[in-house]
Structures are given as structure tokens and as C-alpha cells.
Amino acid sequence: MKRIIIALVSLVLCLGAFAQNKKEKLPSKEMGLQLYSIRTLIGNPELYAKNHVEVFKKLKSYGYTSVEAANYKEGKFYGVSPKQYLKDVTDAGLVSLSSHTSHRLSADELKNHDFTNALKWWKEAIKAHKEAGLTYIVTPSDHFPKSLEEAKTLCDYHNEVGKLCKEAGIIYGYHNHSFEFKKIDNSDVVWYDYFLQNTKPEFVFFQMDVYWCMMAQQSPCEYYKKYPGRFTCLHIKDKYELGQSGMVGFDAIFRNYKTSGMKNFVVELERTDGTIDIMEGVKRSANYLRKSKFVKPSYK
To answer: Rounded to two decimals, what is the model's pTM?
Structure first.
């Protein structure tokens, strides 16, 4: 009898472990991570060289399928060549999806509507990004225009950058914060709307950061309806890890993906609430998305 009881207990424990493992298995979904999120681990060449192998391996194990770079400088990503960066990413089983890269016009260039030197810089940058296997280049922020004239110059500039990217087979976009939803001085014109209206869809998409949109007291879904198809790659973000604050309507955002034009999305964490480390926040965000019935496995 004692042997039978022990056997039954062992069977129950095994079945419990099996059920637990089965319960924890989450569906695979295509989702990227903005590497700025883990800047304390790989945010400069020294940290990258020390930690990128282990960090990329963890991102893959959490369910991330791609990454968005945030450290392009002088032809290199995190201090390594574009080809080496691509190899580092692909060796971990990840996709080199995109990069946040910018080159602002100087005050004189902005005043004179002169993009000559800036576009020379971009040609070299685009070449490096092509070698790094990227689908998207995204400008993470730019000047807030002081006038409608400056606004037109900035739109013309981004159109030219986008044209160069398209010629190279790369898709170019702009990432917002909250300030873009303010009105341009001495006008009733919202800069973000003007930006959308005066850039060409074939050259410029908008990587809406849904958290910053909400912080500006705007609705991402209303912008999708107003400018359908312009939001090819989204930034999915919350105050801390995804779903923690309850501030952002992620379900509605993902349900309206067809209207937005979204083909990819990238998760970003600027910080955690201090009770967990950043990698745990990154992991919890991945789990939140993998559990959501509104997030599709792929949008392509």
C-alpha cells in the first residue's frame, strides 16, 4: 500500500509539473524591442562588447523576434561595423529590423532651406544601414518649428531623406514624443497634423509612440482614422512595463492595425517602477503581448 501511495503522489506531481509547463507555454508572435530600453546593459560600445551575446540570447528566449538599434554613430552600431552588428543580431536568432538615427539641420540650414550637407551625411548613413540589414530608419525626434515656414522646411527635408532611403530600398519614418501635438506658434495648426499632411506617404511613415500620444491627451486610433495607412511601424510603450499602468488602450490599438497600416511594432521601456530590473520589465512586456488575444502572430 505504501508503494502505491508513493507512486500515486509521484504521478500527481508529474502531472502537475506537466500542466504547469503547458500553461506557461505562450504563443510566438513577431515583435521587436527598441534597444534603448536596455541601454544600461548595451548602451555604449564597451557595454555592448561585454554583454550583447547574453542579452540578445535572453531577448530571443523572452519571445522577441527583432531589434531596433539606438546607437548609430560615424558608420558604426554600438562601436562595431554594420556587418558585424548584423551578424551579432542574426547569430542570436533575431532580425535587424530598424534603427533610430537622426541628423538635425543647423539653424542656418533651417533658415536657408539648405539640405546639401545634411543629405551627404544621410547618404553615408543609409549605406551603413543597408549593410546592417535594416528594413526601417526612423528619426527619433527633430526641431519643433517656430513658424509655418520652418514647418514646411522640415517637411521638405524629411521628404528628401525619405526619398534617398526609398532609392536604397529602406523605409523611412519619424517617431513622435508628446510635443509634436502642440500648435505651431501664432497659428491654430498642430505640428503633428501639419507634418503628416506635408510629407509624402511614399517617402515618410510615422512611427507613432502610442504612450506619448496618450500623454499628449490624443487618441492613437483617431489618428489612424484621420491618416489611414501612415503608421507602418508602431512604438508600443507604457509608463513602465506594458499593461502596468492601465493608461494605454493596447487592445484598441491592435484591433485597428489595418487602419493604421501597421506591418511591424517595436516595444520600448524607458524605465521600470524600481521594484524590478529592466530585463524583467522587458520580459513581462513580452509576456503581456504574447498572452493578448488582440495581438496577431504577424502583420505581414
So the answer is: 0.91
